[in-house]
Amino acid sequence: MRDAAEFDAFYAGSVQRVLGQLYAMIGNRAEAEDAVAEAYARAWDRWVSVRECDSPEAWVRRVAYRVAVSSWRKTVNRLRAHRRDATGQQVAATSVDHVAVVTALRRIPTEQRRVVVLHHLVGLSVTEIATEVGSNENTVKTRLARGRRALAAHLTEESSSQMDGGRQP
């Protein structure tokens, strides 16, 4: 039997965090919102078993990520529509640092971005990340190290570009 109050509390306590994490992983807020909504709907359908997981939130995040990736593979038109819709949106009080980090995250490979977000924004350990992404710990460590280097390089490029007024050497 599903417990609506229990699920509602789980949803209310985790949805913004999962949405922020998925947005950081995939780089598109509209797609992240769609994938997170679908993941929570699936969690509700399977709540009896999902609530017994070690981390129902990790279950939802993993499903949301898979939904997003599947969406990319299935329909280019959907991706274009979301991007067109998102271009007119205004973001309130976004700092220069926030924009630089999001831009840099978008430039690194997907699997590196995923482990960097899971480690640094979600706060998962290497072991937890390996479990969530279905990989071994050494692969996660390698992706994390490469992701950090790539992110640092992009952030350094952003800083030097801003300091010289955007001029290329």
What would you report as the Rg, rounded to the nearest angstrom?
A: 18 Å
- SSE order, as H and E? HHHHHHHHH
Strand content: under 5%
Distance between the termini: 65 Å
What is the residue-mean pLDDT, rounded to a whole number? 84
* Number of contiguous helices: 9
Q: In which range does the helix fraction lie?
A: over 70%
- The low-confidence runs, each spanning 5 or more residues with pLDDT under 50, are none
Number of strands: 0
Helix/strand structural class: mainly alpha
Shape by Cα distribution: globular
Specify the biggest β-sheet.
none
Give a brief description.
The chain is 79% helix and 0% strand.
Question: Could you describe the 3D structure shown?
Answer:
The N and C termini lie far apart (65 Å). α8 packs across α9. It is built from nine helices and no strands. It has helices at 4-26, 29-45, 47-50, 56-74, 76-87, 96-107, 110-121, 126-133, 137-163. The chain is mostly helical.
